[in-house]
Amino acid sequence: MRKMGLPVLLMLLILVLFNSTVTAEDVTIRFLSHNYKPWNDLLSEQARAFEELHPNVKVEYTHVEHADLNTRLMTSLVAGTAPDVMGVYGPWMAELVENGWIAAAPDFVVEDIMNNTVPVAGQSAEYDGEIYGYIQHIGIHTPIINVDLYEEAGIDVPTTYEELLAANAYLDIYDDRDRLIQAGATLSTSRDGSWNVIHWSTILKAYGVELVNEDGTEAAFNTEVGREATETYMALTHPRFIDDAFVLGRSAMAWNGPWWRAFLDANAPNLNYQAIAPIAGPDRQVTGMYAWFWVVNANSTPQQQYWAWRFSEFLSNDENYLDMALDIGFISFRNAHYEDDRYATDDWIRTFGEALEAAEIYYAPIAQWESIDVAIGQELERLVVGEITVEQALNNAERRVNEIIAEGR
Amino acid sequence: MLAKIVNTRMSQGRKHQLVFVVVGLIPIMAYFSVFSIYPVFSAFRISLHRWGLLQRERPFIGFDNYLWAINDPVFWASLRNTMFYVVFFVGLVLVFSLLAALFVNSLRAPFKELMRGVIFMPVVTSLVAVSLMFVWLYQPSFGVLNFILDWFGLGPFDYLQSSTQVLPSIIAMGVWKSVGYSMVIFLAGLTTIPQDFYEAAYVDGASPLRVLFSITLPLLKPTTVFVLVTSVISSVQVFTEIYIMTRGGPGTASRTLVLHIYETGFQFFQMGRASAVAFIMFAVILVLTLVQLRRFRIDFEY
Q1: Each residue's pLDDT tens digit, A333-381
Q2: A28-139+290-351 belongs to which homologous superfamily?
Q3: Contact A382 B247 (CB under 8 A)
Q4: How far apart are CA A359 and CA A346, in angstroms?
Q5: Do the domains A28-139+290-351 and A141-289+361-407 sit in the same CATH topology, yes or no?
Q6: Alpha helix (H) ranges present in A64-106?
Q7: How do residues A166-177 score in pLDDT, each as one tens digit?
């Protein structure tokens, strides 16, 4: 009995140690994104695949309404109950970094981003020399034309704003009671989703004007050239025409993202449309871009942070992100996909991919961007409905932006 | 002290009654204290601080948030829009619901029940669904309203896309949605007016119009005051339809106080400022209600 005692004790010790090692590696990571059903379904599948690959990791996935996401995230971060992996909108990043709520990416993520993704993927996720996550998806708008309306009018596809304004004027058609029945272009006039700000700032950039100065301390758009660019934006908006005017074949051009193809195919199967390259302005060819990111909670445990990064890497790898690109219509940020036949031979995706080379982040990397976006968006709305002039709109927007920056959020 | 009074002056039965009342009130008073009284005091305290949800420092700043509010043009635009909404919404609801009540009251069964149901139907319809439906009705180029008006050579109107038409358009929808509720209250009020008054008036040869202005309207005054006060309070708090239909736009043309509070608090996380605006709105409602109660004091009985 005494001889048996030592081996039994050793066995017990080994069992306890082994058990505690396993327990230490068992980890649950909470994962949050906004709602978009086909995408949520695919993310759920990918989360299950990750769990199968790493049986010690459990991924709890929740998704909330897009409009509620910011409130949900910020309040949970303040309360210390935020998820481990969070899908966040680019303009929020500065605030998240400044408050120390999100973790800088570890070396294996940084290396992957620097070596295997398009340059904008690293640039857009970088703050003060650190990279804070993978791109979840890129929001990029290019002009989409109604090919039939352009062909009927015998107009070439515009490549510059000068050509676009001429085409727009030609394609604007009024009835005998002076009511617009066809629009040459319908850029967004709504601040819902910041789209009017994105379209306006795209034109500003093409004219060589930035939203705020280099150090982000004051508005920089209220200049003579800024006014000229805003007049161009005005000419290309027709506030009486909704986005659906393009779907209904009543607008010759809309600006939208790659995901729109699924919507157009479902709702306007006979519409002959085509994405074209971003329009070149007097300064440069450019299109406004925003990005969503997968970031990791800096207050999660080291073990959770490690697996959260592994999970982000898994979602963003060549294989899984190709599914995301082909199934959901996201523009890929992985270099490998541009040589993959399944991705590279698709004209629509290729056009957006090429547009990415002319893409610039539309927002400024400052913590108060959310407030600034609303202020500018409101003044643009007042402008397009004729409540105020271009000069008043820019003066008002400048004053409000400077006040917001001066006050802090 | 209370125990002493209870022990010395009350009968056993009264004591049990008092204990029953106190015990019965405890849950509701606790609920009321935690979820109503405490938040009000807490919101007032927050309104005196620079209380950003995302800021670690929340210093006491006195009435600076109130000063910020009254120096903010967006606040004044919101207040102006709210007052515009209140005046026209309440006025139109009062007129149309009273007319609807008089009309329905004059009908015989089964038309009376049928019309009451038809007019009341929008009240039980989801406000979100109604708002989305009206966004389409009001669409300038493709909406049904402009399509119909075009038959008569009218329009097109811009409705929600126009700074001057947006609030009237939302008010029109709100009135359509709310008339049924006030009509039912007026109908209830009409049933409380003794028939003897009408019979006496008709015996004296009074015209229907004279009966309306000399009997019905004066005797409906308590009901009218109730509809007026509740409509004013609810219309000052208008939010859902504005949020869904315009988000306060174009620009700030349909931005109301509650939307201003919501965006300040939950989009920009400036809880101190949002609380200050909420207290200003509370003061506005209080003043409006007191004015109405004083102006329309009910000083008769029948």
Answers
A1: 899 988 888 887 888 888 888 888 898 888 887 878 888 988 899 899 8
A2: Periplasmic binding protein-like II (3.40.190.10)
A3: no
A4: 20
A5: yes
A6: 66-79, 93-98
A7: 999 999 998 877
